[in-house]
């Protein structure tokens, strides 16, 4: 069900920076991640790759979204493995359907918003002719979200914001997508709340509208004196099927906790993914059955981010720091999937402003299967606090932008 437009706009503005901000955040959080500003003098080389952004620039139908995640449809999410026959599945949150008057560079006529959509891209290089977008429609032709909550916990009016996902080769190549269950709260400053974490399971070979999908609730959501804990912001399959350099057979799932935005990690064997009794949480010294014992790997992270492998088995996190505004993109290397992580290093300052203070960027993350060897392709989202006005003035702004970081 589509929300009223005004509620949706407020939600969009809030969700970018506040969706999982903790209540009564833990005062004993890990030391905040430092961000080094002098990235231009390092051996890290960053450049924009506008061809990826242009692939998502469309004049009719699906014209914009944020919340981008993706996985290759062979389940191998490492740099340099895509070819002309490869296929990538994307999923987005907060999507717009409409038409743009290209001569006037404005929206033309009515436009609609929905909570999520998917797309499929063929090949290894960005090409607007080789990506196709999917969402559902009602009997009157109005766009509907691709995924609507259908679990024991869901109720009418609830909807999904989508998290990360992956292909589980040990579960017959099922694609799992984390989905945050959200409802509106009219009249409050931030008129929504997230209520839990669901999982969407897409059986091998299934395609939109995913009539054979499964959805189920999970225990990966917690609210207590440490703040709010939510898992599913990033997934790292450390398996042979995923092409991991030193596979141990575990799926590592990352979470965020409290107002300090602490990064947490859990793991489970790939063949036991749906058995939550088998999940274990890193407590700083070992793997614990109690989620509340989770130790912060670092803090000051994004609500959406990524952790991916480097060729030597180390990992690299990509995100936008919470306390550094929304303009910096940083990376941080980790010795293992559970850390320790080096101090974050700034690799990019996002330039999108449209000469307007209302614009901001957020939720940077890497896409390893689309990256070149020795590089990581990173996306980030662009939005405006004055959304109703700016979506008309700058109708192409609401779509991911991309940079490539060579290291």
Strand content: 35-45%
Our measurement of the CA-to-CA distance between the termini, rounded to an integer number of angstroms, reads 44 Å
Number of strands: 27
Biggest sheet architecture: 6 strands, antiparallel
Q: Please provide the ordered H/E string of secondary-structure elements.
A: HEEHEEEEEEEEEEEEEEEEEEEEEEEEHE
Number of helices: 3
- Mean pLDDT across residues: 88
Poorly predicted spans = 1-41
What does this entry show, briefly?
The protein is mainly beta and 407 residues long. The protein is built from three helices and 27 strands.
Report on this model:
By secondary structure, this protein is mainly β. Helix content is 7%, strand content 44%. The chain is built from 3 helices and 27 strands. The strands form 6 sheets. It has a 6-stranded antiparallel sheet, with no helix packed on it. Strands 1-24-23-21-20 form a 5-stranded mixed sheet, with no helix packed on it. Strands 3, 4, 5, 6 and 7 form a 5-stranded antiparallel sheet that branches. Strand 14 and strand 15 form a beta hairpin. The longest helix is centred in the first third of the chain and has 14 residues, at 5-18. Mean pLDDT is 88; it is low at 1-41.
Helix and strand topology:
Elements: H1 5-18, E1 35-36, E2 45-48, H2 50-55, E3 60-72, E4 87-101, E5 106-107, E6 112-122, E7 131-134, E8 136-137, E9 143-144, E10 159-168, E11 174-184, E12 192-202, E13 214-217, E14 221-224, E15 227-238, E16 250-257, E17 262-269, E18 280-282, E19 287-288, E20 306-309, E21 315-319, E22 323-326, E23 328-334, E24 344-349, E25 359-366, E26 375-384, H3 387-393, E27 401-406
Parallel strand pairs: 1-24
Antiparallel strand pairs: 2-27, 3-4, 4-5, 4-6, 6-7, 8-9, 10-11, 11-12, 12-13, 14-15, 15-16, 16-17, 17-18, 18-19, 20-21, 21-23, 23-24, 25-26, 26-27
């Amino acid at each position: 069900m589509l929300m009223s437009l005004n509620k949706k706009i407020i939600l969009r503005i809030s969700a970018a920076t506040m969706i999982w901000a903790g209540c009564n955040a833990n005062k004993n959080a890990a030391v905040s991640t430092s961000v080094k500003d002098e990235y231009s003098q390092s051996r890290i080389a960053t450049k924009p790759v506008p061809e990826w952004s242009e692939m998502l620039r469309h004049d009719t139908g699906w014209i914009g979204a944020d919340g981008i995640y993706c996985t290759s449809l062979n389940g191998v999410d490492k740099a340099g493995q895509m070819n002309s026959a490869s296929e990538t599945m994307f999923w987005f949150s907060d999507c717009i359907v409409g038409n743009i008057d290209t001569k006037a560079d404005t929206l033309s006529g009515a436009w609609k918003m929905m909570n999520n959509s998917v797309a499929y891209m063929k090949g290894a290089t960005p090409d607007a002719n080789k990506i196709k977008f999917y969402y559902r429609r009602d009997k009157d032709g109005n766009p509907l979200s691709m995924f609507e909550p259908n679990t024991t916990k869901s109720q009418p009016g609830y909807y999904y914001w989508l998290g990360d996902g992956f292909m589980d080769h040990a579960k017959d190549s099922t694609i799992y997508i984390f989905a945050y269950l959200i409802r509106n709260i009219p009249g409050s400053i931030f008129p929504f709340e997230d209520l839990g974490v669901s999982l969407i399971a897409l059986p091998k070979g299934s395609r939109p509208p995913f009539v054979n999908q499964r959805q189920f609730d999970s225990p990966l959501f917690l609210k207590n004196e440490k703040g709010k804990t939510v898992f599913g912001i990033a997934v790292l399959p450390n398996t042979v099927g995923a092409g991991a350099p030193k596979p141990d057979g575990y799926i590592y799932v990352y979470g965020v906790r409290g107002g300090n935005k602490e990064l947490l990690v859990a793991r489970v064997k790939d063949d036991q993914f749906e058995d939550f009794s088998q999940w274990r949480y890193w407590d700083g010294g070992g793997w614990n059955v109690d989620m509340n014992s989770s130790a912060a790997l670092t803090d000051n992270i994004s609500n959406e981010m990524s952790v991916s492998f480097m060729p030597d088995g180390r990992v690299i996190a990509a995100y936008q720091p919470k306390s550094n505004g929304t303009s910096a993109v940083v990376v941080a290397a980790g010795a293992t999937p559970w850390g320790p992580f080096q101090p974050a290093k700034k690799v990019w300052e996002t330039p999108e402003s449209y000469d307007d203070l209302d614009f901001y960027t957020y939720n940077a993350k890497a896409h390893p299967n689309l990256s070149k060897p020795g590089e990581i392709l990173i996306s980030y989202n662009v939005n405006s606090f004055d959304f109703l006005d700016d979506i008309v003035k700058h109708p192409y702004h609401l779509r991911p932008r991309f940079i490539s970081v060579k290291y």
